[in-house]
Structures are given as C-alpha cells and as structure tokens.
C-alpha cells in the first residue's frame, strides 16, 4: 500500500520554504507559535523525552543530533529542543513520514494528541513571523 | 488496498466490524495514511509490488481483547500479524509477512507487571520497550540491569521471540534463553501459560523455567504458533564492578589462536562479559567497545590494506606486517569484559592475560575499570548496553559524516552463524567479498564480529536499503546468493528479513526438509484456519501451501 501522494505533497510544501530560508541564513518559521498551557507543554516535553531524546537529545551519543551537527555546521542548533524554527507542520511531517534511518511513528506510539503536544513544545521558541 | 488471495472485501469488512467491537473503533486503523505507518520503513522492496503491506491494523489493550481479535480472525479468515513494538528494523519492522494481513499491534499492552529484585526477574507485556523496562526498574529502586540490544526502542518480548541478543553476561544477552515463563493466546483464542505458570496460583512462574512435561516455549520463538502476551525474564543483578581489558596481536596469522584462547576463557567462566574482536590496523573497532563511539564511516578506507586482509596470502601478510611496523598499530585486538566484585574481576583479568600470553609478542593494554552507578562523564561516552542501559546510539552508523555525506535510509542484515574459529572468519569474509564483487557491489570492510553467542560466531553484515529499486534489486540478489553460498559451507542464518525467510528456511533442509514439515504439522494443528502470521519465518499454513 503506497502512501497517498496528496498526503505527502502538502507537508512537503510546508517544509521547503523554511529550509530554503535557513540556507540563506534567515530563520523564519512557517507558522506563528501559539501560546500553550503549562499542562500541554509538560506533555509535549514528556513525549519528546520518551520518543525523541534518545536520538535528538543534547550532547554526545545522540545520532540525530550528531547528524544535524554535520548538516548545519553550527549555523543553527543541532539539538531539536534548541531550535526556534520548528513549526508544528515540520514536526508532524517528520514524525509521520520519517527521514533517513528514522522511521515514521505509528499512532499507537505517538498519538495525534501527543503529536500535537510535541509539535507545540518544539515550536515554543519559534519567533513570530513578520 | 491489498487483501490475501482468499479473503473477499466482504470478509474483510466483517473482520473490521468485529475488531471495532472488540477494541473500540478508535483502535482500528484503516485509512491509507494510518495503515502506511505499518510499512516496513527499511523494506528492501520499498514501493515495489512485492513489498509486504498490511490491509489494516488493530490495537488491543489487554489479553481479553487479543483473544477477541484472534476469534474474529478465525470467524472471518482474515490473517492477523502480531507485532510487539514493530522496531525490528532490518528484519521486517511492523509489516506482515503476507500482504493483506491485518497487523495486530500490541504496543498498547505496555505494562511492566512485576519487578522482583530479590529474584532478579521481571514480568512484562509485549508493548514494553527496553527504555520502558529500564525506567520501571529504576522507579522500583531495584539494582537490576536490563540486557538490551543496541536499539533500546525494541520490545524485550519481541526481541526474545526473534532470538535477538544483547551485551552483558551470556545467560542474559541470549534474550530467549533469559526468559522464564510465557502467557500465550493460541491461534484459536485459547489462553495458555507455560512453565510453572501452567499451575493456577503458581508462586514460581519467574523462578523455574520448564514446569512439567514438554518444554514448549521454543515453539513460540521465530514462529507463528501463538500471540505471546506476557513473558518473564531473568535480570542481571548490578555487579560491583566491570573491568574491560584489551589485548593486541601483531601477526595476521594470530587470529585463530586469539579466538581459541578467548573462547576457552569464556567457556571456562573467566571472561563473563561479551567479548569481541577488532583490528587497530584496519581501524576496525571492536563491536560494543565502550570507548569507541565514533560513527562508522568516520574514518577513510585503506583499500590496499583491506584487500590484503581479504587475500591473506604471503604477499598480503608481508604488506600487513609492513604496515604494522610503519603505523605501530596491531593487526588484531580482542576486548574482554568482566563483571563482578572488584577483587574478582582484577584477578580474572590477570588470569586472562596469562592465557593470552601464549601468543608470541602479545601485548595487554591498561584495563578500564568501572564502578556503579556510572559517573555522568562515563555515561556520556560509554557503550550503554554494555552496562545494561538502553540507547539508540547505534544509529550513528548511518548518519552523515565527512566520509559519508549521503544519509542511509535503511539497512538489511545478512547474519550467518559460523564456527567460532579464526579460520571461519577468514573464509566467510573471503566468500562475502567474492560474491559482492561478482554482483558488482562494493565490498564491505573486512568484518570482525562481536561474540554474542557463547559457542558460535554470528557474522552480521549490514547492507543498505535505498529508495532506488534497481539498487535494492542488486542487494537482494547478492543476499540471496550469500544465503545459498553460505549454506553450501554449512553456515545458516540466525534470523533474516521477512522477504528472505522462505529462502533461509529452505536451507535448513536435512531429511528432505523434515524440520519444515514438522513446523507445518504443528502449524496446521494449532492454527487450522491459518490466521496467525502466515509465512512468518517460512512457516505457511495449509491454506497458503496450495
């Protein structure tokens, strides 16, 4: 069963713009950060700690962070929690589509509600778009 | 959407209704978007017609719901394919062996039911990951180690049933051997417990493995005879200390003696952690070396040297000897680990060094010594599974490095079990190189194994999975040839990606495939409707055998 092409096309469009801008050295998130209640923020952090931190945590021993260090060469932070350009759309895309060796995550692993909390958590430092 | 050849859309619809009644509609996944999440992300048939794909997924929350789902499968003939955490990437992931099966996703069954520090055991459900178990053990304040494979997101039950391995003492790193007692939903929906668990009110389910009568637990590993819903495991008590020693041998021809001594030390109980072999000259680190966290591919390849290691003839040995002199790096090293009281591990290391000294010119390095809990500094750099700590650091083998700018998208493993001798390591490496050359593929670096199993070696060679169908075809062909050529030499796969399971089962053919016929007899008796994981590990029910 193939992924529906339409389902991929829209998130990809959301991805291209921020990545192009990052390449030019300007960090403009794709969507403005929304204020979130503390409980939702806590939940988002818990989801990150459980599902993302083993690869994307800060410091050595985290392959996702190591790989992004090589990719960005210090132009933007390699640890996801330090980023200020991860729109909820980007997070949702990578969690459900995967990238490289990182597989996509099923809804029994990261539910839609947890994904929403995670996306908001990673977007908490996003600067509002101008 | 694809369905098995003998399942109609009406039967499928009836099955979905039954599943929804059993688990609630929100836990039955049927949309293309949701079902795509059950694709094998590392499928060697990615996007090709032969890719194994599910028709739907159902996620029960408890044993009763598993039983209900299995009964629905029997009533409607729709096969179900249980997964624990679905993270055996490189061996099939969460996709079924038979396209059109409905994945029975057990991830929601994620309770650690018991942590017994005094008995050094746990009882878990299939959706529990190694990370979950580690947290539960720590939360319980129990000084027990979790023997885990490199990727910690897998399931202790799933990994044990696939007969995976870890890194600590032999009795724990053989994950299936470390289990004690199972609960199984049989293909008819009946619930069974094995070992002492078969006795109602038994107080020793996680204490005595066999129970009474035939010990049937092995039938549920690498098979499709039941859905394992609980499993007990014996755990390693935290040792007082761990000592890690390294010895270095300079001559190419030293490998057989190095391994022979190492094996004897392990079989004698002197070396009690997982040993491994490496080559400083090739800059080939020992698998699971706690002090070598550099990503694979971080150093370049010296092709002339690689070729010499493969060839091993007089000319090659002369080149290797010359490079040893030039670089000051040894040809081989062995890494040995000792767990136990400090006095004991230091003594074991002395005894090991005396044994290795039979090799002319052998040098022993200064040992590393660890006490517990590990310091933050050590924790940040060590190979965590060596110390019973789950991690995902292993995925650094596929990340970007300066020598490997392209990201890997997946891998598949060719993993034959060979004799535990240096001669077999040489011979198998040469065979792998020959086949890959003939298939027009890059020859991987000369391979040196970790010694997961006590009396055999598993030559795990990892091949890439790409998103290019032609490249994937080439690698599939090479692996198929490797399976056949290895079997001709008496080497068999210990585990394999789903797409090669028929081929591999076909190589275990003694007595005109007597073992496969036995599996089929058991399968037909336990699962007369052929609804549980048809094709898994090359075992097909009657309805699929034609």
Keywords for this entry:
heterodimer; A: about 130 residues; mainly alpha; 5 helices; disordered N terminus; B: alpha+beta; five-stranded antiparallel sheet; 16 helices; 21 strands; globular
What does this structure look like?
- The complex is a heterodimer of chains A (130) and B (546).
- Chain A has helices spanning 5-23, 38-56, 63-72, 88-97, 112-122.
- Chain A is built from five helices and no strands.
- Mean pLDDT of chain A is 77; it is low at 1-33.
- Chain A is globular, with a radius of gyration of 14 Å.
- Chain A has 130 residues and is mostly helical.
- With 546 residues, chain B is α+β, with helices and mostly antiparallel strands.
- The two termini of chain B are 23 Å apart.
- The chains are: A mainly alpha (130), B alpha+beta (546).
- Chains A and B meet through α2 and α3 of A and α2 of B.
Cα Rg of chain B: 24 Å
- How many DSSP H or I helices of chain A? 5
**How many angstroms separate the termini of chain B?**
23 Å
Oligomer: heterodimer
Helix content of chain A: 40-55%
Mean pLDDT of chain A: 77
Class computed from helices, strands and strand pairing of chain A: mainly alpha
Rg over CA atoms of chain A: 14 Å
Mean pLDDT of chain B: 94
Short description:
Chain A has helices spanning 5-23, 38-56, 63-72, 88-97, 112-122. Chain A is mainly alpha-helical and 130 residues long.
How are the SSEs placed, and which strands pair?
The complex is a heterodimer of chains A (130) and B (546).
Chain A: H1 5-23, H2 38-56, H3 63-72, H4 88-97, H5 112-122
Helix pairs in contact in A: 1-4, 2-5, 4-5
Chain B: H1 9-23, E1 28-29, H2 32-35, E2 56-58, H3 63-76, E3 80-83, E4 102-105, E5 112-116, E6 121-124, H4 130-139, E7 144-145, H5 156-161, H6 170-173, E8 179-185, E9 191-193, E10 227-234, E11 236-237, E12 241-249, H7 255-267, E13 276-278, H8 303-311, H9 314-327, E14 332-340, H10 342-356, E15 363-364, E16 368-371, H11 376-381, E17 411-414, E18 416-419, H12 422-438, E19 456-458, E20 461-464, H13 469-488, E21 492-493, H14 501-507, H15 510-526, H16 542-545
Parallel strand pairs in B: 2-4, 3-4
Antiparallel strand pairs in B: 1-2, 5-6, 6-10, 7-11, 8-9, 8-10, 12-14, 12-15, 12-16, 13-14, 17-20, 18-19, 18-21
């Amino acid at each position: 069963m193939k992924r529906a092409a339409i389902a991929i096309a829209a998130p990809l469009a959301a991805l291209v713009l921020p990545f192009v801008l990052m390449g030019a050295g300007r960090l403009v998130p794709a969507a403005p950060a929304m204020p979130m209640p503390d409980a939702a923020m806590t939940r988002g952090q818990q989801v990150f700690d459980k599902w993302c931190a083993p690869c994307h945590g800060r410091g050595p021993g985290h392959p996702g962070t190591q790989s992004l260090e090589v990719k960005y060469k210090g132009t933007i932070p390699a640890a996801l929690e330090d980023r200020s350009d991860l729109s909820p759309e980007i997070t949702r895309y990578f969690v459900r589509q995967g990238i490289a060796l990182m597989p996509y995550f099923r809804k029994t692993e990261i539910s839609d509600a947890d994904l929403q909390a995670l996306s908001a958590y990673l977007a908490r430092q996003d600067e509002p778009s101008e | 959407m694809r369905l098995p050849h003998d399942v109609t859309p009406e039967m499928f619809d009836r099955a979905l209704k039954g599943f929804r009644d059993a688990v609630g509609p929100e836990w039955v996944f049927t949309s293309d978007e949701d079902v795509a999440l059950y694709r094998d992300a590392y499928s060697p048939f990615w996007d090709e017609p032969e890719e194994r794909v599910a028709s739907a997924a159902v996620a029960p929350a408890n044993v009763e719901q598993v039983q209900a789902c299995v009964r629905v499968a029997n009533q409607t003939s729709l096969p179900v394919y249980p997964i624990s955490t679905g993270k055996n990437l490189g061996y099939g992931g969460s996709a079924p062996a038979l396209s059109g099966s409905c994945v029975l996703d057990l991830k929601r069954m994620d309770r650690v039911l018991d942590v017994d520090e005094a008995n050094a055991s746990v009882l878990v459900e299939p959706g529990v990951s190694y990370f979950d178990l580690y947290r539960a053990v720590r939360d319980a304040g129990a000084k027990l180690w979790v023997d885990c494979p490199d990727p910690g997101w897998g399931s202790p039950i799933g990994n044990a049933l696939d007969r995976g391995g870890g890194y600590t003492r032999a009795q724990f790193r053989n994950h299936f051997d470390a289990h004690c007692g199972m609960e199984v939903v049989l293909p008819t929906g009946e619930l069974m417990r094995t070992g002492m668990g078969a006795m109602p009110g038994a107080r020793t389910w996680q204490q005595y493995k066999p129970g009474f009568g035939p010990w049937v637990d092995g039938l549920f590993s690498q098979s499709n005879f039941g859905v394992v819903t609980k499993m007990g495991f014996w755990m390693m008590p935290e040792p007082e200390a761990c000592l890690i020693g390294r010895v270095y041998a300079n001559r190419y021809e030293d490998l057989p003696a190095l391994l022979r001594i190492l094996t004897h030390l392990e079989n004698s109980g002197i070396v009690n952690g997982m040993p491994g072999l490496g080559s400083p000259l090739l800059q080939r680190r020992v698998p699971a070396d706690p002090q070598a966290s550099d990503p694979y591919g971080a150093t370049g390849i010296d092709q002339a040297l690689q070729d010499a290691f493969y060839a091993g003839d007089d000319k090659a040995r002369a080149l290797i000897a010359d490079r040893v002199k030039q670089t000051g790096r040894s040809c081989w090293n062995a890494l040995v680990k000792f767990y136990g009281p400090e006095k004991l591990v230091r003594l074991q290391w002395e005894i090991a060094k005396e044994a290795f000294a039979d090799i002319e010119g052998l040098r022993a390095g200064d040992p590393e010594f660890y006490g517990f809990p590990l310091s933050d500094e050590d924790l940040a750099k060590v190979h965590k599974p060596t110390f019973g700590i789950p991690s995902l650091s292993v995925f650094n083998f596929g990340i970007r490095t300066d020598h490997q700018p392209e990201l890997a998208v997946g891998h598949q493993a060719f993993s034959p079990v060979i004799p535990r001798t240096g001669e077999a390591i040489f011979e198998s490496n040469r065979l792998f190189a020959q086949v890959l050359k003939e298939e027009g593929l890059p020859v991987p670096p000369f391979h040196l194994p970790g010694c997961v199993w006590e009396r055999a070696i598993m030559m795990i060679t990892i091949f890439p999975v790409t998103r290019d169908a032609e490249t994937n075809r080439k690698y599939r062909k090479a692996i198929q040839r490797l399976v056949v050529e290895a079997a001709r030499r008496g080497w068999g796969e210990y585990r394999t990606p789903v797409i090669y399971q028929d081929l591999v089962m076909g190589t275990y053919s003694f007595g005109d495939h007597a073992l496969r016929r036995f599996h089929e007899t058991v399968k037909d008796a336990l699962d007369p409707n052929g609804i549980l994981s048809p094709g898994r590990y090359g075992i097909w029910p009657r309805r699929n055998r034609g």
